[in-house]
Amino acid sequence: MSFSHSFKVPRLLLRCFFIPAYLSCNALIFQIKFFIRGVIMKKVILIVAIIIIVSLIAGTAGYAKTQESELMIYSGAGMRKPMDKIGVAFEKKYGVAVRCNYAGSNTLLSQIELTKKGDCYMPGATMYIEKAKEKGFVDYEKPVAYHIPVIVVPEGNPANIKSLKDLIKPGVKVILGDPKAAACGKIAKKILKKNKIYDEVQKNVIATTATVNELVVYLCMGQSDASIIWKASLLGTEDKTDIIEIPKEENMIKVIPIGRLTFSKHKKIAKKFVDFVASSEGKNIFKECGFTAYPNPKYKK
């Protein structure tokens, strides 16, 4: 065998064994890389899926927390001042926001009946909470303060009104609350009927309003000679209006209640709100806003 021929064997071996082995190693490395990439991709997909799931859970929890951290209150327009302050105080104490819908008491009752949503109802007189109870809308209630009707006139009393009977004098312009919408309108009608002058006063009525706040605006602008309004609603208008007290025997003092709605989705915190409004802290806020807190010996029947 020649020297040159001696190298044919290694070349043959290289071709027959080493090259396939080299190729097999490359294939193996490729498979390993492919496997590793597959594992990495699966991990990436798993991590992304976990992030999405966690985000969805967090979002749902956040939404639920938002829903649970807000109370919806139907409040008579005449209680706006104290209820705004009470809402702030309650949120500070319990971390639950309070959103009030202000309107006439009967208007609110109609809204409650239509939507069957919300947490508490605070009308301007007990008669409305009684109606709500009859309809099955209220399952827990407490008295808070008194609504005291008074005769209100523009500053200086240009029509010289001194009593309820003066409202029937010819030429006197009277504005009252709408008895179908506002508690102050309904109570004014009852007071006038009680004193047997309703029909005569009606001849002097030039307009009716849906809320007590609108009556205050009319009187402050001098658009009327007189009205019958809750005394507390006149706080802050001393330089624009004068008050004529109605004698107790001629008057009809009303209790302001607050009740929890049966379809409240936040029963426990809604009850806490009712209790808070009727607590000494809540009643003190009402006093600051010109109301007389319940109970008071002067207004016992």
* CATH architecture group name of the largest domain: 3-Layer(aba) Sandwich
Count helical runs.
9
CA-based gyration radius = 38 Å
Quick one: biggest sheet? 6 strands, mixed
Strand order of the largest sheet: 2-1-3-10-4-11
The dominant shape is elongated
How many angstroms separate the termini?
A: 138 Å
The CATH topology of the largest domain turns out to be D-Maltodextrin-Binding Protein, domain 2
CATH superfamily of the largest domain: Periplasmic binding protein-like II
Number of strands: 11
Identify the CATH class of the largest domain.
Alpha Beta
Number of domains: 3
Task: Give an overview of the whole structure.
This protein has 301 residues and is of the alpha/beta class. It folds into 3 domains: 10-66; 69-146 and 256-299, D-Maltodextrin-Binding Protein, domain 2 (3-Layer(aba) Sandwich), CATH 3.40.190; 149-245, Periplasmic binding protein-like II (D-Maltodextrin-Binding Protein, domain 2, 3-Layer(aba) Sandwich). The protein is 47% helix and 20% strand. The chain has 9 helices and 11 strands. It has helices at residues 8-68, 80-94, 105-115, 126-134, 183-194, 198-202, 212-220, 267-277, 280-288; strands at residues 70-76, 97-103, 120-122, 138-147, 149-154, 174-177, 205-209, 227-230, 241-245, 254-261, 292-293. The strands form 3 sheets. A 6-stranded mixed β-sheet has the order 2-1-3-10-4-11. It has a 3-stranded antiparallel β-sheet with strand order 8-5-9. Helix 2 (80-94) links the parallel strand 1 and strand 2 (97-103). 35% of the residues are buried. Residues 1-9 and 54-67 have low confidence and may be disordered.
